[in-house]
Amino acid sequence: MGEHANQYRDNKILWSEVLPGGHHWSGRIQKGTVLQFKSLGANANVSFFCVNAADQLERYNMPDSLKGQHTAFLSTGHALYSDLGRVMASIIHDDQGWNDAFCGASRPEYIKKQFGSCTFQDARNEMYQSGLDGLLVEMAKFSLAQKDLSATVNLFSKVTPNDCGELSYIHADRTNQVIELRFEMDCLVFLSAAPHALDNSDRYQPADVNMQLFKALPLNEHDICRDSCPQNQRAYANNARYYALESNV
């Protein structure tokens, strides 16, 4: 499963597990590691949110991430900024080429309207769960609540606007696509593999996603994310100051 070699990480798999479609996950991902996501089916979507593990008030900030990099989506070479101007994670590989940063996680009312109702009492772990509910379950494990959740990155999902600004979900077969995030600080990561908020599929059948963790290699003289724009270089400099004491101990 580690066949997608990347010049920015080691090839040794530190751990691997499958996030079933519709399910959710959380954990601490350390600075200097790469978390790989591989879609195992056509309708993959992973709603991603993270906070600084050492200071939960520092969180992924969608407006700054897009504004600072002059983009409307996130892909290879882009960084995920915190609300303090530091880089939380960076995208070092992306087969999808466009990851939605606008729409957020799907809500329960959308899931019920689009797919009907299938509760835990009816179907146990095969219930129809929204992205929002899944993320909130995981965040509660770390004493975080809905007030702490801002925008998410929807990995594997592309949305485009029309001339009126209305967003549409782009259906495509995402089987075996790979996305790799390199973590630039210790993060608490929250994931949901529920359908995208604009997915108009007839059936609730989100794809499973395989996750693997690798060790990141030291940054080269030229780095695909740090050097993709001047604002990223400044954000990485903020990280260097933040971790300066640690690096000199």
UniProtKB/TrEMBL annotation:
Q: What positions does the domain DUF1989 occupy?
A: 18-188
- Name the InterPro entries for this protein: DUF1989 (IPR018959), UAAP1 (IPR017792)
- Chain coiled-coil ranges: none
Which branch of life, at top level?
Answer: Bacteria
- Transmembrane ranges, per UniProt, are none
Q: Which organism is it from?
A: Acinetobacter wuhouensis
Name the UniProt record assigns to this protein: DUF1989 domain-containing protein
